[in-house]
Give the backbone structure.
Amino acid sequence: MRFGSLFSGIGGLDLGLERAGNPSVKTSDIPERPILEFLAKLDRWATHGNARSMPTVQDAMPEGTPIKLQLSKMRALKKRGLVQGCYCGCRGDWEITDAGRNVLTHNVSTMPTAL
Ligand SMILES: [Zn+2]
């Protein structure tokens, strides 16, 4: 199934915000498209966690996503070659890869839609 809008921004956030209150939220529950779109718009890498002085992937995830879960999600994206970065918990260095951009360019949904 394809998403209707290529540039839907952080449209998944509303749903995510609802789920943020759910303690059983899993890595697979975090929409990946907002993360890829977020990274694609940056001209530098992003960190994770709740940094205020630099971009953080938290901004593209449901509010209050635990760092452990943020890293788990980023690790899953890295395994699939969609992002580059370090998930050990240091600073992250998250950047989108050509493969990640390809997902956005071709409007491919790479996970079952949660909508
Ligand atoms: Zn590291």
Summary: DSSP finds four helices and two strands in the chain. Residues 86, 88, 90 surround zinc ion (CB under 6 Å). The chain has a mean pLDDT of 81.
